[in-house]
From TrEMBL, chains A, B:
Keywords assigned by UniProt, alphabetized: Carboxypeptidase, Hydrolase, Protease, Serine protease
Source lineage: Bacteria, Pseudomonadati, Pseudomonadota, Gammaproteobacteria, Lysobacterales
Entry EC no(s): 3.4.15.6
Domain of life assignment: Bacteria
Source organism per UniProt: Pseudomarimonas arenosa
GO process terms (BP): proteolysis
Functional summary from the UniProt entry: Exopeptidase that catalyzes the hydrolytic cleavage of multi-L-arginyl-poly-L-aspartic acid (cyanophycin; a water-insoluble reserve polymer) into aspartate-arginine dipeptides.
Family recorded in the similarity comment: Belongs to the peptidase S51 family.
Active-site residues per Swiss-Prot or TrEMBL entry: 136 (charge relay system), 178 (charge relay system), 205 (charge relay system)
Catalytic activity: [L-4-(L-arginin-2-N-yl)aspartate](n) + H2O = [L-4-(L-arginin-2-N-yl)aspartate](n-1) + L-4-(L-arginin-2-N-yl)aspartate
InterPro entries in the record: Class_I_gatase-like, Peptidase_S51, Peptidase_S51_cyanophycinase
Name the UniProt record assigns to this protein: Cyanophycinase
PANTHER family: CYANOPHYCINASE
Length: 282, 282
């Protein structure tokens, strides 16, 4: 599927992948920024806890977003594909100013929602300005191409990653989460080695990429966002390696961004942004 | 210390860092190439097992190199700094066509050999054409700046790495070993963030960088060599981050090389080398 067309005169909503384990109590800056983006006390947030197998995941986020001042929060779960056709749930999503996917298993989301009216509606609403965030598995599914699962390791290896179609809000990037914590550079680079058109985004825990309508990514949170840009790739051996063999990749460009830094997914320019004092920038 | 000056009309010996756990039995291609480089049946190899606390490390490599056809192999251990002044051991090193440092703890090598006649002699002999290899800890110590220890993790973090002076055969690179297996991209990038002049070389296990007199690195073995070139760095926040905070690094260039690929440490050009068929290259 392709991202929905953005109507003339409108702006796409923000897309906000979060690397998992975001701070929910002491300094929940990522979740707070999401609530503010969705309208603060006017925010109307739908939480989709379908990735999770824990019964209280949805209600937990309802409580957190409520405490952060969101005007209205509703958790909507989907247990079967038939659930995705239910009019009352679709209507509730249609009203929302923000949609939030919890963590869990990304294949739960895509197997239940893929190709359904819910998936289509969320793409359409995002194109109309509704903000869509997801944490961990909920982050992985936001893009067109999703890492379904893979192996740990710092250097790329054939067969170390399995891609699957995601929700498809955008096709500009491939997400990996828990990045620093679970050693995923190798599998993200392997994912890019198949076809270097997309930008790889590795999200540390408690770290989010707030991607605006102009496709500029801003980092929020306590960790780093590792951007792998393969557009300048000189060589990939992905077409000739066997399973378990290392992949040769020449000419990757890597940026490690922290809070305040930005990356433009369109021009592929990184900026230290607020990290640089006016004196240095001048 | 600086690398020894190469006498007019002579060539530096090869420098061969190995990522640890190199194959010693089934297909010992790295160790075999080292023996051949040192002269095959004319090879005269000194093994320095000082990094290891295991009693049989030296004799094990004596046996392996012997079976691979080396003419003469002697293991020389150093238990105290005073041992490094002993004339018979220095004379034995002076005769060798190759020196091999085993794995273990790199700080054992540097605390025992640093600043001694042995360290100086090995630098001088390398400048005169003697080949010097090391595996794991033995690889880490070959360069001027050495990673003494650090934390695992895919993205760089202040305080995640401690540098120390190494043996100093070259100052062109900083080595990290067990690269894929122990998730060390973050700490290698952190090491470069202090001062991007050096090239970061991340060696997977059973993988070696054969660095010739012309400073071209050739990959040998079953894994990958990840080259991090920070020469084009646009920004490093290393001067302003606190311990435990992520480091912002914009503009790293990364190449993942496998057997057959090369990297020129002087021009900083990567090449797929033998991986590309003549047809593709044309």
């Amino acid at each position: 599927m392709c991202p929905s067309k953005i109507p003339d005169g409108e702006q796409r909503g923000w897309i906000i992948p979060i690397g998992g384990a975001e701070d929910k109590e002491n300094d929940p800056r990522i979740l707070r920024r999401f609530v503010e983006l969705c309208g603060g006390d006017q925010a109307d947030i739908v939480v989709i806890p379908t990735a999770s197998r824990l019964a209280d995941t949805g209600s937990r986020y309802e409580k957190i977003f409520g405490e952060l001042g969101a005007g209205k929060v509703t958790s909507i779960d989907f247990d079967t594909r038939r659930d995705t056709e239910e009019k009352s749930r679709l209507k509730r999503i249609e009203q929302a100013s923000g949609v939030f996917f919890t963590g869990g298993n990304q294949l739960r989301i895509t197997t239940l929602l893929g190709g359904t009216p819910v998936a289509k509606l969320i793409r359409v609403r995002n194109a109309h300005g509704v903000h869509v965030a997801g944490t961990s598995a909920g982050a992985a599914i936001l893009s067109e191409h999703m890492i379904a699962f893979g192996e740990e390791g710092g250097s790329p290896m054939a067969g170390s990653v399995r891609l699957a179609p995601g929700l498809g809000l955008t096709n500009r990037f491939i997400i990996d989460q828990h990045f620093r914590q679970r050693d995923r550079l190798g599998r993200l680079a392997t994912a890019l080695a198949f076809n270097p058109f997309a930008v790889g985004i590795g999200l540390d825990e408690d770290t989010a990429a707030f991607i605006g309508p102009d496709n500029t990514l801003e980092v929020e949170g306590s960790g780093a966002v590792t951007v792998i840009d393969a557009a300048g790739l000189q060589f990939s051996s992905m077409d000739r390696v066997d399973e378990g063999e290392p992949v040769c990749l020449l000419g990757l460009s890597v940026h490690v961004l922290v809070h305040g830094a930005t990356f433009n997914l369109h021009t592929r320019q990184a900026s230290a942004g607020a990290l640089v004092s006016p004196k240095e920038a001048g």
